[in-house]
Amino acid sequence: MKNDLLLRALKGLPVERPPVWIMRQAGRYLPDYIKLKNKYDFFTRCRTPELVSEITLLPIDQIGTDAAIIFSDILVVLQAMNIEVEMKPNFGPFIPNPIDSKEKVKNLITPNVRDKLGYVFEAIKITKRDLNDRVPLIGFAGSPWTLFCYLVQGSGSKTFDKSKGFAFANPKETEIILEKITLTTIEYLKGQIDAGADVVQIFDSWGGLLSPSDYSEFSLKYINRIVSAIKNYAPVIIFGKGCWFALNEMVKTGASGLGIDWSCSARNARYLSGGNITLQGNYDPAKLLSPISKIKSDVNQMINDFGKQSYIVNLGHGILPNIPVSHAKAFVDAVKEYKSL
Amino acid sequence: MKNDLLLRALKGLPVERPPVWIMRQAGRYLPDYIKLKNKYDFFTRCRTPELVSEITLLPIDQIGTDAAIIFSDILVVLQAMNIEVEMKPNFGPFIPNPIDSKEKVKNLITPNVRDKLGYVFEAIKITKRDLNDRVPLIGFAGSPWTLFCYLVQGSGSKTFDKSKGFAFANPKETEIILEKITLTTIEYLKGQIDAGADVVQIFDSWGGLLSPSDYSEFSLKYINRIVSAIKNYAPVIIFGKGCWFALNEMVKTGASGLGIDWSCSARNARYLSGGNITLQGNYDPAKLLSPISKIKSDVNQMINDFGKQSYIVNLGHGILPNIPVSHAKAFVDAVKEYKSL
Description:
The structure is a homodimer. Chain A is built from 14 helices and nine strands. Chain A is α/β, with parallel strands linked by helices.
């Protein structure tokens, strides 16, 4: 690997500067991505290995991040489990037949992952070939709870009130669903690692909608099983949006890194996670709309606050579609120009 | 006051059991409210003192909460400041001409509050008469930051990315807007107290979208000025959704109580707030969809966790429209039936 900053940071090994990548770096705000978006529908982009590789490499070539993350979507796992998922323009994910009653739980299958998601593994192989060891490749999956949220709600939501209501009213059926997603996700992530993913990240985008005790029951328990099953094959990063209250428990899973959002200061994050694990984050995506000089000074301050060791610079959530490329690049450049205090 | 549990809890005085009320208790899920909703549009309901009183008293009569909160909306303050605000059915607030550029900042006026919001003060007087000192009446306002979020975004949003982008790109103009809202809010809350509100609550619904340092700059600074200006006239509760990281700073404002959401355990909330201030919360509104027996045992546990002194039982955010009245009532009854450990 020519640039192994990410791998070293995840092992807690010394680095001259922290690595940097950006959640959703391969989409949304990049003009060359928009061109492909206008030409091919969302899941065609996900299912065509050459397109996946092209999209995945865009930010490496254009803004110079220290890691690539495979272009895909967390919801492909639900598709593999027999659930129809559409990606509606200007709306987001839409599930025409959500699991909104006990009776529908049986609609969910535990698939043969190589049959149903082989296209992701193929895309990873081709992307690894095209990357030619310039930077590591990150694979990913949604957490079972986060997939459950979409599966029951049927779309995105501010509160996922239907999903939470279902879980609280039907804890047994919820457990069955989460079990099936967990088994599928373990095979899916193993497949990604077999295909060449150097690191995997678990996105728990909606874990922060739960109280600490509900989080343990409905989310962390399953993340824990996934991390246990794969941590010996590749380093795992857990990113739980809004899950500051569970950082300490997340450390115990054996993950190599924890994603932090901007509601949690560097100091709080180091304290809550016990001070030894590698942390990743946590710039507010909306702050990339600040003037470039402010972005650069903020990044410098952020590295000083987290410390340059055991740290991966990133946003605290995905990049927004309205961020100028020059601002995203300034964010990355600021890390490369970092001068210690 | 026949039932002064809320007032005693806010002063930290001994109570035989904690008081209970529910955010948004006067709307949404109550069948008698829905009837009025189908008959009068939203702002007619807010501007007709007799309707306000009728709606405000519904939960006192029907589910037996220990406090009333005046039926209104945080956005009436923007209307008073010369901003058109509509409440669209199945959509929520809509501002046809948001302040989305520097040039539009001058559209915002600092009004004569008695002229523009006198209907709220009148509604408070009539409601107080109708309440006849059965329970205290809570007045309220949105925090300046939360009103700014709607003012710039033009509607509700998951991320308020336009509002945050405006703030980060135009900090000076943002300060001008927040100043004007702050001055208006101080007069508005003073007017509510003069009219008879026994307690006031400041809702910072979107403060949790900011990092701790941005929260200090864009939200807490203005909340602090408001609390300083009114705390000698009535006890103030600050509710910052997702603002666990600022609890310690909120204590320093001189507020009498802090609202807590369910992401923050009782133990964390007591620790982060320093252990002396009255706390209010924090049941997950979606958990009111649990079986009634579970709601009752959860409430008992919650009181044990927070402790029955210096504590106000509430949800961690507004009640959801799909909650059965019997479940809301079970929540309230559980507090009244509370038996100490």
